[in-house]
Specification:
This protein has no helices and 17 strands. The protein is mainly beta. The chain has two domains: 51 residues, Immunoglobulins (Immunoglobulin-like, Sandwich), CATH 2.60.40; 120 residues, Sandwich (Immunoglobulin-like).
Length: 175
Amino acid sequence: MPSGNIDKPIIEDNHDGTVTIKYDPREEGVHELAVKFNGEHVQGSPYKIHVDSISSGYVTAYGPGLTHGVTGEPSNFTISTKGAGAGGLSMAVEGPSKAEISCHDNKDGTVSVSYLPTAPGEYKISVRFGDKHIKGSPFNAKITGEGRKRNQISVGSCSEVSLPGKNLRRRHTLS
């Protein structure tokens, strides 16, 4: 937990070769989840998870794509703007490869975001509201796996999607 205290999640055996991990965080901030099999970290572990109060009135982001992913597979997360008022929403995904970003306004105060990393490594996901980073931003996602390798150089591009009372800018940056 952010305080340094250790908490244990509930682990349920699904009896099909998988387990379900449930965790009810009691502190806001960055939590670290270590997942081990036979004493060894599984791929991508330890995972960093940012926890915020859902009723904070601030723009928040949550979902697995903010902490980890696999090359060649979409990484997903959600941005909640409920109760945040009007303002510009923008995001950027920077890492070892260009990551194509797609956004969908869910018309309920949330935006579903998906990006496609094409090379392994650390990706920095910046989410800004009113030109200020939201709580936890920039997020660092650990992308693993071989995935699809591309030998190309990409330059940044920008596009805008209109949301009710907001402008959503998507920026693709190669670093």
